[in-house]
Design brief:
By secondary structure, the chain is α/β, with parallel strands linked by helices. It is built from four helices and five strands, in the order βββαβααβα. Residues about 1-5 have low confidence and may be disordered.
């Protein structure tokens, strides 16, 4: 018998500065209303929709690795959620392999639900902040790399 505690709540976000532009993904895991994990990463130059898919992919892979069998995944990307649920076709050649990876990962779980929520949801907003922190850190690193050695602080 499945208990409610076995169901992991996953909140994902992807962000790109420019479309395409520098992009990042992030997720937050919750159980019983408490944050139990989070992660994010830099993607390089890509579109916002691709970043949203990468967030879902990284979250599902991490949830499976952590032993999760059932999840509810929340995203503010209605396009990605509707494509995953089969309500919209995946027309973009760039998104097709990402969707295939989501399908492959879905097979590893006993049950999973995908739900679109507003970007104002507190945990979606937190995932968005994580994406922006990653993008800000990358931008700082890029600027520091461009400073001539004679002008860098020692």
């Amino acid at each position: 018998m499945r208990t409610e505690q076995e169901i992991l709540e996953i909140y994902t976000d992807g962000a790109s500065r420019g479309n395409p532009g520098d992009a990042a993904w992030a997720y937050i895991f919750c159980r019983d209303g408490k944050i139990v994990g989070s992660d994010g990463g830099f993607l390089g130059r890509t579109t916002n929709n691709q970043a949203e898919y990468h967030a879902v992919i990284h979250a599902l892979a991490a949830a499976h690795k952590a032993g999760c069998s059932s999840f509810t995944l929340y995203s503010d990307s209605e396009l990605v959620i509707r494509q995953i649920r089969g309500e919209y076709a995946v027309r973009s050649p760039a998104l097709a392999p990402l969707m295939a990876r989501v399908r492959e990962l879905q097979q590893r779980f006993h049950a999973g639900r995908f739900t679109a929520v507003p970007r104002t949801h507190p945990l979606i907003a937190a995932a968005d902040r994580l994406c922006n922190e990653i993008l800000d850190a990358h931008a700082r690193s890029e600027r520091e790399d461009r400073i001539p050695p004679s002008r860098q602080k020692e």
